[in-house]
Amino acid sequence: MSQRPPARASSLAAAITDAHILVATGAGGVGKTTSAAALGLAAAQQGRRALVLTIDPARRLAQAMGLEGLADEPTRVPLPAGHLAAGGELWAMMLDMQTTFDRLIHRHAGSAEEAEAITANRIYRQLSSTLSGTQEYMAMERLHELHEQGAFDLLVIDTPPTRSALDFLDAPRRMTSFLEGRLLKLLLKPGVAAGRGIGKVVGAGATAFMRVAGRVTGMELLQDLADFFRDFEGMYDGFKQRAEEVLVLLRDPRSRFVVVTSAEPPPLREARFFLERLEQEGLHAAGVVVNRISPEVPRDPSDAGLTRAVRSLQEAAGVDPDAPNDLDQQPSDELAMSGALQLLSDVRNLAARQRRDVSAGLFGVEVPALVEVPLLDGDVHDLDGLASIAATLSTGRTR
């Protein structure tokens, strides 16, 4: 007899209470940053010391938390004492990719002098800011640093706004592949690293071009390359080991992924691919958050929710719901209410279609929890708005 799959939760309460790391990921523009901040707030409200690490350079997260801005070091978020359980704290910070990469160099360099030489090298400065996957890798590196420090109960990371959410999972592997690549190994050979034979590696034409470029720009490109690869030679094993440690940390059962999406087919497809990838990699999904979904309107005439919806529509149509019936005004009132009820029908149809799209998009994949965050009147720009979303994530109920 086949076992039924476990019931799907309607909140992220278990992850907010038990997880040590929560990674908010998903397609661009679906509300990852706000969801990450709300997860941290929900944990703080339950008495946990939570830190939200964002990669988004926009100031929305800082503004929503009542802060002037965020830096590379944790900043305490001032919260009303009445909204926190004993011991609860919320902290926030923004990734400084270059600073994190520099710290990584200092950690693995053979000496302080060698580290200074690398971080001052113009090839390193360019490579560290443009190499594919660097931002995602540095986000993981900063996460690992914070984990090792052990100062927080929960670390919530808002993944970079990349083309694909899968880029975050691929970052350590891409970095390792670069370090294991044939070109880099060739450049790390003693003769090449010392500046000899580089013409054989890149070819006479490329060497001539680099010499011309050096004369035009004033940069001694060949010497910079030789210095960089010579100094980098001893750090290969350290970088590779760190990438492996990051993957081990993410595979820990207390590290979980929150996949954020909207109710539209394209982000739902990406959410599905990501959930499938998590399962393939042996990683743990906490659940899916569907942002900006239309609320369901009850059909039972006695339902209080329907009564509130009808009153809202009456007010929007210019009809006073508390006014006595007036036969002279009845035709115009009926016309206004007809339009209002048509709007109510449209809202119902949209809500039903969105939920069909969500069901179809996630069909056949394991989703431990599915949380619907309703469409709000405007963007979240303060703690009250953030608290409303935090309540939905932790209870599954909307306000």
How does this model look, in words?
The chain is of the alpha/beta class and 399 residues long. The protein folds into 2 domains: 13-172 and 236-295 and 360-395, P-loop containing nucleotide triphosphate hydrolases (Rossmann fold, 3-Layer(aba) Sandwich), CATH 3.40.50; 304-351. It contains 18 helices and 8 strands. The protein has helices at residues 13-18, 32-45, 60-64, 97-108, 112-120, 122-130, 134-149, 166-180, 182-187, 190-193, 198-202, 204-217, 221-232, 236-251, 265-281, 304-316, 330-361, 383-395, and strands at 21-25, 49-54, 75-76, 89-94, 154-158, 255-262, 284-293, 370-374. The protein has an 8-stranded mixed sheet with strand order 3-4-2-5-1-6-7-8, with helices on both faces. Strand 6 (255-262), helix 15 and strand 7 form a beta-alpha-beta unit. Helix 4 (97-108) packs antiparallel against helix 5 (112-120) and helix 4 (97-108) packs across helix 7.
